[in-house]
Amino acid sequence: MTTVVIATSGSIIIGMAALATEGASWYLAARNASTAADLAALAGAGALTRGAQPSPVALDTASRNGFSAASPVQVYSPPVTGAYAGNAAAVEVSIAQTPRLGLAGMFLASAPVVRARAVALANADEEVCILALNQLDLGGNSTTQATRCALAAGAGGINVLSNATVRAATLVTTGACQNCTTGNVWADNSRSARPVIITNRATPVTDPFESLASWTPTPTTCRTVPIGKGNVSITPAQGAICTDLSVGVNDTLTMAPGLYYFRNANFTLQGRINAPGVTMVFTGDPDRVGTLRISDKTGGTLTGPTSSLIPGHSAAQGVVVYRDARSTANGSTRELQLNGGSTMTLRGAVYAPTSDVIVNGNTSLTTNCLSLVAWNMSFSGQESTTVDVAGCAGYTNYGLLRTVRLVE
């Protein structure tokens, strides 16, 4: 009798130990499946933001985390269950796996099925008003206000220098963000929270005017612009501007709406400009392309057109300045200067994909629609710049910070 009790007790002890040991392994398997489902759903949603098919990416991610399609792993885009069922911007991943039974098989007919499910949502929910395709420097005693949009940069990163004041909702870069957490960098003027800071991002913010960079401008015959003291009016039909154009402090230039070519010519603004609905294209020989310089004394109105003036390039809608992407004359003497005085209205997009833009004046520039995209950008001096793209909807393009997040 004693032998039977001992044998029975031993079996129970062994069974309990087996269940405890294998129960821990089942718990670990469930946790691993949950992690793999989360990562696979995020990867699939990330593929959506790039215009790719989410299923192959999600399956590959699950496989790399120990769960192959035979587990099985199911990917649904859009999801078929849950709160995001039918949402084309979401990806659902489910994983089901039956662990191998060990000693617990003495007491269980089969192991419990390990299940995990995750849903990730691809968002295009943050506007980018300043996009440096390479590097963004915020220095001097400048103040840059972008509390309702993001400041973005490429591999060159974002550098907050000297006594610069930065107020921005988000700072995002594929490189580093220097002094972004220690300088005078806050989400708003209450100084209660830092911006959302995203560094070493795997993919850069998409250039919203990228298709325009493939365009080859073809300026028309050169013409003479009779700029002198007083008021001067010009129209685009008179031909390309092929010599440097300067508007003095006491001068006023009125530009009729339309497309203006500056061929191997610089345009310097110190006085007033009245230019509603214009697109200025700086082009010519790649090593001689001119540039635009707006001083901090400039006043008046400079706005882009409500529809594209360049046939076949809808991205040019609202573009007020485009400097030819083919330009090789991109040194310090060819920077675009966008200072502008407090009495100047600048509205639209400035696109200089291979050029530098500097803002280094001593006054203030405020606009509710300014989409800046350039290779490098620098804000310095005493300039106070307030930028936003809230007024750009339906008028001109701007960058979008596409993010993905787990929602289930």
Give structural notes.
14% of the residues lie in helices and 39% in strands. The protein is mainly beta and 408 residues long. The chain has a 25-stranded mixed β-sheet that branches. α1 packs antiparallel against α2. The model is unreliable at 1-11 and 15-20 (pLDDT under 50).
Question: Helix-strand pattern, N to C?
Answer: HHEEEEEEEEEEEEEEEEEEEEEEEEEEE
Shape from CA axes? elongated
Q: What is the radius of gyration computed over CA atoms, rounded to a whole number of angstroms? A: 30 Å
- Number of helical segments? 2
Question: What is the compact description of this entry?
Answer:
This is Flp pilus-assembly TadE/G-like. The chain is mainly beta and 408 residues long. It has 2 helices and 27 strands.
Which terms would index this structure?
mainly beta, disordered N terminus, 39% strand, 25-stranded mixed sheet, single chain, 408 residues, Flp pilus-assembly TadE/G-like, two-stranded parallel sheet, 27 strands, 14% helix
SSE map:
Layout: H1 2-49, H2 54-64, E1 73-76, E2 90-97, E3 114-138, E4 143-153, E5 157-160, E6 165-173, E7 177-178, E8 184-186, E9 196-198, E10 222-223, E11 231-234, E12 240-241, E13 245-247, E14 252-255, E15 258-263, E16 267-269, E17 272-275, E18 278-283, E19 292-294, E20 299-303, E21 319-323, E22 336-338, E23 344-359, E24 364-366, E25 370-379, E26 384-386, E27 399-406
Parallel strand pairs: 3-4, 3-5, 3-25, 4-6, 4-26, 5-7, 6-8, 6-9, 10-12, 11-14, 13-16, 14-17, 15-18, 16-19, 17-20, 18-21, 19-22, 20-23, 21-23, 22-23, 23-25, 24-26
Antiparallel strand pairs: 1-2, 2-3, 3-27
